[in-house]
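One such shown below:

_____
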Amino acid sequence: MTDQENNGTKRPEEGPSSSENSENGPGRSRRTLKDRVIGRIHDWRKQRAERKAAAAFTGGGIMERIRAFFRLLLSWITWPFRRVSAFLQGRSPIVRLVVIAILAPFIASWLWLFWITGWIRDFDPARADALIAENVLKPQGMAQEGAEGAEKSCGRSAIVAVAADLVDFNINRNRWVSASPVYKFGLLGIPWSYTPFFDNKAAFQRGVMQAVIITAIELADTLGRVRGTSRQDVDLRAARAAVNVDPYRWIFNPFDARLPLITSPATADYKRAIAAFHRFNDRLERCEAVFDARADNLLQFVDRVAKDIGATSARLKDRAEASNAGWFDFRADDTFWFALGQLYGYAAILKAARADFSGVVRARNLDDIWDNLQDHLNTAIGLDPLIVSNGAEDGLLFPSHLTALGFYALRARANLVEIRAVLDR
């Protein structure tokens, strides 16, 4: 009997070889630790590169700032994917499938949002010309006995037809973005207006609707009724109420305290406005409605439009002075595209107003001024920067697109003020 047996101990059974122990035991721990260290170093290098890119905004040359912009843009775009990839690394297949199932609806919704906001469909400043040719007013004597100077016009109003077409342009030929639940939810709760993505078209559409709202108010209050009477046209009143609704309203609004939880979407009211505009023109064609195409009514309409464009010019100026961040002012694009949409709407509406008030325009020799007005509006809506920059007014690579648009908006407003002065003589 050996000494070990005498002492009551047993020799341990021979285990795996040293090489196998190295693979399955301490060696595996050493490799895991090594991978973790390498991963930490890799993350640290990425963070250092991002900090350098951010620091380039406050110093360095122009080329450094441009490179920093694209590095940061790439970092922002790829950040969610890098974080998800880091999280899934080493996870079980079940965990990966669960994460993918959770993220798939978000990715699909963002792709759909890109599809509806990627470009403005049917953008055509010349479309109003065809509508004006199809909708012509013809004077038919006095509109109402005792209403001095109120000339009755039958036919179809170009202003009303263009207003209806602009609403149709916003909600039928394009999808109304502002009330879309995907747009309202934002980027994981962050409003899209605070990001460089998916908000330009929504701002443009709200600008177009701003022009339609002002026009609908003037149609119901002034142009669509005989001066001296208190009764508004029923269809124009309905159209005015239908366009002047909250543009963010959807069927279900759980995250917006301003709106009812369940209600009809804004697009339903906009469709009712289109129908009301068309009903008015149909009745006007049968001489059952009134369009009061007098000089004082044109004066009031032009004055209202000039004030609205002036207010937008002030907003452009305030935003241009509030920041000098160039491409990195992510709120500047909302201001720019809202103003561009508003001027796009007014370019068509004022062209229609010239046709509806053609007798007044000829009698007051306003053709030259009106030509200048349309030229300035057409130049303004022709601005289409790939990225809206809010930089210095004399910047080379970081210009001020807001200042450029504001310049043409003020030129158009100056023409409207001049038209008003001629009409007021």
About this structure: Residues 29 and 272 are 70 Å apart (CA to CA). Confidence is low (pLDDT under 50) at residues 1-30, 141-150. Residues 21-90 form one domain.
